[in-house]
Amino acid sequence: MARINATHFPVTVLGPGRRLGVWFQGCPLACAGCMSRHTWDPEGGREVTVAHLLGLWRRALAAGADGLTVSGGEPLTQPAALAALLAGAAGERDEAPADLLVYTGYTEGELAADPAREAAVRDADALITGRYVAARPTDLAWRGSANQRLLPRTPLGAARYAPHRERRAAGRTLQAAPRDDDALALIGVPRPGQLAALEARLRAAGTALTRPSWRAE
């Protein structure tokens, strides 16, 4: 079983191409300024089987997915479920060059120091590591703060991600997706000030946001 917050396909702003996104629920790191506070509560979200997630992955691959992005929350709070998801997803790829990308707030050293965490990401082609630090904004592609590192881990990961390690984000960095609970999800890594500017534009147009995920209730 995995406790997740959401899934979505296609995701186009968290890695190259069109991707299946899976957001794990629960995060003990609670970085100040996080846009996804709704994913922190370990009792939130919903439980699903890894088999269910792999079914979504198979359908995404059939639709031409370029990869899987796992984020959160903090995926490594559920290492067994993450390991099973990544191993299963790797086995389903056959010859398709679809990569597996994991976002984690833990650093490379913290992963290496914890056998369970290191085992959980064994099948990841690339990681984006490090806590979000609001005081260190960056425009590096797919990262929210300058301390976060993009780490290819396999030949596919190197081919897919090495060209982006120092690339600056260009074009759209957020996408909107409707949720089953009538909420609107914002997917991606916002630029500094982008969320406040979006909220101001919506307010000027007569639309007020309720319970935005980047502020405490």
Write the layout of secondary structure elements.
Layout: E1 2-11, E2 19-24, E3 46-48, H1 50-62, E4 67-71, H2 79-92, E5 99-103, H3 108-112, H4 115-120, E6 126-129, E7 149-152, H5 155-161, E8 174-178, E9 184-188, H6 194-204
Parallel strand pairs: 2-4, 4-5, 5-6
Antiparallel strand pairs: 1-2, 1-3, 6-7, 8-9
How would you summarize what this structure contains?
The protein is 26% helix and 22% strand. By secondary structure, the chain is an alpha/beta fold.
Walk me through what this model shows:
The protein has 217 residues and is of the alpha/beta class. It has helices spanning 50-62, 79-92, 108-112, 115-120, 155-161, 194-204, and strands at residues 2-11, 19-24, 46-48, 67-71, 99-103, 126-129, 149-152, 174-178, 184-188. The strands form two sheets. A seven-stranded mixed beta sheet has the order 3-1-2-4-5-6-7. Strands 8-9 form a two-stranded antiparallel ribbon. Helix 2 links the parallel strand 4 (67-71) and strand 5 (99-103). The relative contact order is 0.15.
Count helical runs.
Answer: 6
Major sheet: 7 strands, mixed
Strand order of the largest sheet: 3-1-2-4-5-6-7
SSE run: EEEHEHEHHEEHEEH
> How helical, in percent, are the residues?
25-40%
SS strand fraction: 15-25%
Please give the number of β-strands: 9
End-to-end Cα distance:
29 Å
Mean pLDDT: 93
Tertiary shape: globular
Query: Low-confidence segments, ≥5 residues, pLDDT <50?
Result: none
Radius of gyration: 17 Å
Structural class: alpha/beta
